[in-house]
Amino acid sequence: xxxxEDRLSSASNHLRRLTFLLGVGAxxxxxxxxxxxxxxxxxxxxxxxxxxxxxxxGQAKAKFDKSIEKSALVLSRWPRxxxxxxxxxxxxxxxxxxxxxxxxxxxxxxxVLAFPQSRFGPEAELYQGLALLRDRQYGPARLALAEVxxxxxxxxxxxxxxxxxxxxxxxxxxxxxxxxxxxxxxxxKSGFRRRAVRALAETGVRQGRWDEAEQWxxxxxxxxxxxxxxxxxxxxxxxxxxxxxxxxxxxxxVQEVLGRYADLDEEANLLLGxxxxxxxxxxxxxxxxxxxxxxxxxGAEAAFLAGKHYEENDDxxxxxxxxxxAKMRRADSDHGVLAxxxxxxxxxxxxRQSDSMDKAEAAFLxxxxxxxxxxxxxxxxxxxxxxxDSFPETDWAAKALFAKAWLKRNARHDTAGAExxxxxVIAEFPETEYADESRRWLGLEVPKRKxxxxxxxxxxxxxxxxxxxxxxELAEETLEPSGPGRRPREPGLTGRPRPEIADDIPSQRxxxxxxxxxxxxxxxxxxxxxxxxxxxxxxxxAHFDFDKWQVRSEDTALLRENAALLASRPDLxxxxxxxxxxxxxxxxxxxxxxxxxxxxxxxxxxAGVSRERLEVESAGKSRPISTGPDEYWLDRRIxxxxx
Length: 643
Known about the structure:
Layout: H1 2-53, H2 57-77, H3 84-97, H4 101-114, H5 121-134, H6 138-151, H7 156-169, H8 173-186, H9 193-206, H10 210-223, H11 227-243, H12 247-257, H13 265-278, H14 282-289, H15 297-312, H16 316-329, H17 334-353, H18 359-373, H19 377-390, H20 395-411, H21 415-428, H22 433-442, H23 456-460, H24 556-567, E1 574-579, H25 586-606, E2 614-620, H26 632-635, E3 638-642
Parallel strand pairs: 1-2
Antiparallel strand pairs: 1-3
Helix pairs in contact: 1-2, 1-3, 2-3, 3-4, 4-5, 5-6, 6-7, 7-8, 8-9, 9-10, 10-11, 11-12, 11-13, 12-13, 13-14, 14-15, 15-16, 15-17, 16-17, 17-18, 18-19, 19-20, 20-21, 21-22, 24-25
């Protein structure tokens, strides 16, 4: 009996032990399941960071999406687990790393509110500020980062560095230099120090503070561990010395690194050639520049510099050849654009010396090139005066005098200096359109004139498009009366294109786009006279180069067609709307769009359309029609509203 009881007791104990072990096993299995899910999420996130560092953006995003998926599964199935706040932080960071900053901010904010004691709370607040910064919400971002700096001493350096970086992104370079220098002084052992020193050097270059930039690049060389990056920085030191006139030092420094890395040799040879040219070793410089053959901005600059050398030595044939090469290598680079302008100038000189063109027209043409193409306003003023003095009895004299007034008023902002010229136009050429425009500028009454009769054929057919100019030929807009579409540069609007994105420009101008009429005016019938159609005319859409508002030469024929169509419909008024591609800030693009609209208005006015009929406005980047970066050229356009 006792043996049976002992056996029963032993069996009961075994059963209890088994039940306990099964319960523990189930708990372990459940814990292992959600830990494994979270572990996978964390692994996907790490792989995404690695791929992003290798610039494999598409594959990186796929990994971040997987991390979000696994982390969301942890939150859904095990919301009370110890890994819940980790998972929520991973979701926010995955969105941040994949560029979805609004979603990142929302999830990081949820983490701070739902898990106030989480060890990820401080980082979550920091990255909320960074998400706002990357989303270009600079005011809220700076407030958030300043709060992190005050609350969390261990994140002070990160918050202060990113605050300084926000000034660089906003192109507030003076504040950026002060903030970055203060950061370097305050945090000598910070992990962000090397990045801050490099940012100081790059910002100094943007500001043309070459001596300071040289010093910062020198410090960066000492801090950088990667040999190739050190070589790249040494080339920047050489550039800074070159800009300060330290030609021998710059040349010697370039020769020290030349040949170390093949992909850096083009930049090195470009700098070495500049040093040799500055030391009057022109033949060596030409030979060095001819080693720079890339189809990029460096290749365009080297070819341009060679062309400039030959132009200065009156070898115009070779100059044109090198300018053509610069244009072909990178037409949208700074020196590619300059090459096109120099080609226009050489063409104007050739026409002036030719017997096939009217001498007054050729002289005016040369003045327009200096004004519109080169932006050399002093030379343009002198050349316009020569036209007026040499050909006083021609229409070109009136155009030249009015052009001088335009430059005084718009390029030099000298309204008082423009007024005597405008009155002179009215006094000497009272019946011309330039006199009427001068009266408008002075606030005087414009006499009513009987409109010139329009031939019937111009009312029923569009003008034949003019052939596109040959490479290097002067833009057609320079043959028109003055009042240039090219406006003086203003701080913060012009400059080189944003370095982070290259702009693709198609080889051909897109065709005109249809404009949908907003309303229709009734037409009055006049017996025996052909009247224009009551429908609105179809006006061609002009496009613009990246970050530019000047009318392109390939669009001038189209705009002249538009002017002819508007001349045939004097009953219409036009609102010209400027558009931009989606890059850049709202404020910047709003101003850029307005300048594009003003440039087209000025062109149409010079082509004979009354300025009183033309209004301008900007849509900025609010109405893009592109589907991706390859189509951004579609967004840089002018459209019209007729009424």
